[in-house]
Amino acid sequence: MKQRPSTIRAMLQASVAALAVPLCVVIANQILSNGSNDPLRGVIRYDLGTVAAGEPVDRDVAIVNPRSQVARLREIASGCACVVHTASDGTIAPGSSANLHFTFTPPDRVGPFEHITVIKYEDAIPPTFLLISGTVARRIEVEPETIEMGDVIAGAQVTQSVSVRLLGDGHDVKLDWQHATIATAATSVDGKTCEYAIEFSPPRGVPLGPCEGRLLITAQGREKSVPCFARVIPRWTATPPQAFFGVVSRGSRPSIVVQLRCQDPSEFEAFRLVHDLPPAFIVSPSKAERSLVVHITIGADREGLHSGTISFLREDEEVAAVVPVSAFVR
């Protein structure tokens, strides 16, 4: 069965309404698909190039009336609140033009964009379609967006590369992070990309635990703060940190094993063990993979509290760990 034109038109309008897209925009997409300006059909293309996200851009375009009748502006409609328009004149004489000023505020979403503005006239004059296009980029882009060094041994050094891409010329970089420095910096030929090497080197003896800071990049009045994280861990770790036997029955022979772990096994050759434990304790050191092992046994027959410490020392007398030891015999 052949459908009437009015029925087809109604179906098209219903489909457009369901998509919440103005019919004029659908028509504009069809007209603009030829890829060039066409004054007679009312097509204006404006390429903004690369623009910074969130930074308004002001431009002017000429609306030409190529017809033999006066064109009176009725409405300027845009499908996006990011585009604001102002026309210099509401009436355009035949063969003349009016200035259309628009302000485009790029969204934070980077990548190519297209926005269609429909300029409508009185007296059933066909509308003019303005297609604004370009690419949105961030003024400052940093990779990675977070500098995470992970666990860093006190006295060691780790390095991470940071890439900074800029939209525009000139920038400043400041690193506010304890125990960290910008070791090297290199800039691309076009000056748009900079590579930085961030070194984090906590010295021995610093407080252990989390260490946080930030890398601050400033360019063209914009700032980008990059969080920096690391956790300082000890070079040597005694496990358990304390050897407490608790209450021990007289004549029994309980033992506790203490391990000194080191990130670099080769350092174990430089260690020696000293202690001030009373004779009730028997201390038997040995070596295992990546650790020094100390077996502590108590065999006291005398009742009361027995206590002292075991110390792990390097050749330079640096104390790696001190382990308190105690037992109460009854």
**Biggest sheet, spatial arrangement of strands:** 1-8-7-3-5
CATH superfamily of the largest domain: Immunoglobulins
CATH architecture label of the largest domain: Sandwich
The amount of helix comes to under 10%
What is the string of SSEs from the N terminus onward? Answer: HHEEEEEEEEEEEEEEEEEEEEEEEE
Question: What general outline do the C-alpha atoms trace?
Answer: rod-shaped
Question: How many structural domains can be distinguished in the coordinates?
Answer: 3
Fill in the CATH topology of the largest domain: Immunoglobulin-like
Strand content: over 45%
Average pLDDT figure = 81
* Strand tally: 24
Calculate the terminal CA-CA distance, rounded to whole Å.
107 Å
